[in-house]
Hints:
The protein is an alpha+beta fold. The chain contains twelve helices and 13 strands. It has a five-stranded mixed β-sheet with strand order 5-13-12-8-9. Strands 3-4-7-6 form a four-stranded antiparallel β-sheet, sandwiched between helices. The chain has a two-stranded antiparallel sheet with strand order 1-2. The longest helix is centred in the C-terminal third of the chain and has 40 residues, at 330-369. The chain starts with 27 loop residues before the first strand and ends in a 6-residue tail after the last helix. 37% of the residues are buried. Residues 1-24, 28-36 and 282-289 have low confidence and may be disordered.
Amino acid sequence: MEAYYMDQQGYSDTSTNTSSSEDELDINVEGREYSEVYDDWNTLFQKAYDRVILCSNATTLPYNIRHDSWENMHQLSKDFKNACVSYAKIIINEVHLNLHEKTIKPVRLKGAAGGEKYIIQSILFKFAIDNRSLYMGDELSARKMAGQDLLGMNTYMNLSAQSSQLKELCYPLTCIIDHRGFRIIAMALLPINHGTIVYGTDDGAANVYNADAKLDKFMQTVARKLNLKTHTVFSKNLPTKPVELHSCADLEGHLGIDGRYYLVDFGRAIPPQDPQISRSIDSSFFSPRLKMGHLTLKLRPELIQNANKPLNPDVFSSFNRCPNRNDSLYGSMEVSRAKEEDDIVELTGFLLHDIITKVAELLITTSTKLSNKEQEFFYFNCLGIYIHFYGNNIRWIGLLYEKVEGERNAEVPEVFLLVEMESRVLKHMINKGLRDTIRGTKHLA
């Protein structure tokens, strides 16, 4: 569980060892301090977002009203990003310091996957480092998990924006900051607490909820649109009363103090690929099983939506098991679990053998129809979008390259795919070097 809690008495579940005086950390925006301009990022964002959606659907409104709604959202997002970047740089630049030397000190919140947590000026910062050895020290996996959180939220948020049935679902204002090889995901604190959760689990399935009929219908609608399978999750505290969920178990639904429905924690919103990738592909450069691969190696939402059957986002996780072998549901759940895992194995194989071949053929065909200038624009600006559109992950670009290598009329895509691969490898090498350098620093960066 990743906490985003703010109650009427202050922040919940935090340590007493917070930051130094927030007044000392105020960042200026156009001559004013952020604490004076935005003391509640969430309220401002929800109002701005509601107005944008209203204006988008009401095309008869005067242009100036619609323009003002987007301009307001743009300015709010810009100021939020600037605040997040300013504080994130402080956190990252002090990663090598002892706790008592840090300008902004971490707080204790539930959840291991999100890394260290910080709260400053009504913003929660989750520092994507493997501080609990969840990924055996692999900080690239920690970075990926933060990216999956944002991808999952964007997927749900886009579906909500496109459907009048889901307009009451709300999401946190969020920003990802990459700096000196590290990644931080920042989000506005929400008016929720441990008593407002009505869907999912915030404590590793010690308690599992689906207690609000209205939110349940919203989640069913999202599941249908995203092609997710409704499944049973057992509560450790009430094992005799299993709960039906329409999303991953640790996606939390809250009825906020302000009366809005909030969804948070999207790290596992999208079903994973087959973690035993060696049975889907014959290649020596993939390990048989990656540490916590079901958390970091997700399938694309575009692929999930077009699959021929609904998929369980909790597949390969402990949430997808019946804890009691003597339970009457144990046998049927084990059969269902095995079938759901087979579905993911089958879809992963289809991706690696069929979809990648199709995308390779389309890239070659597309290149022959474009001028040199159009090819340059396409490969520098649209390659990633094009690959994702067909449900393919960028991490499989090496297999895509193998498919086009040496083919007729494939010289251009072959060169650009190779450049893309080399660029990504260099990016990871540079980021690792930056992380190693700053961790070795003995003075303030």
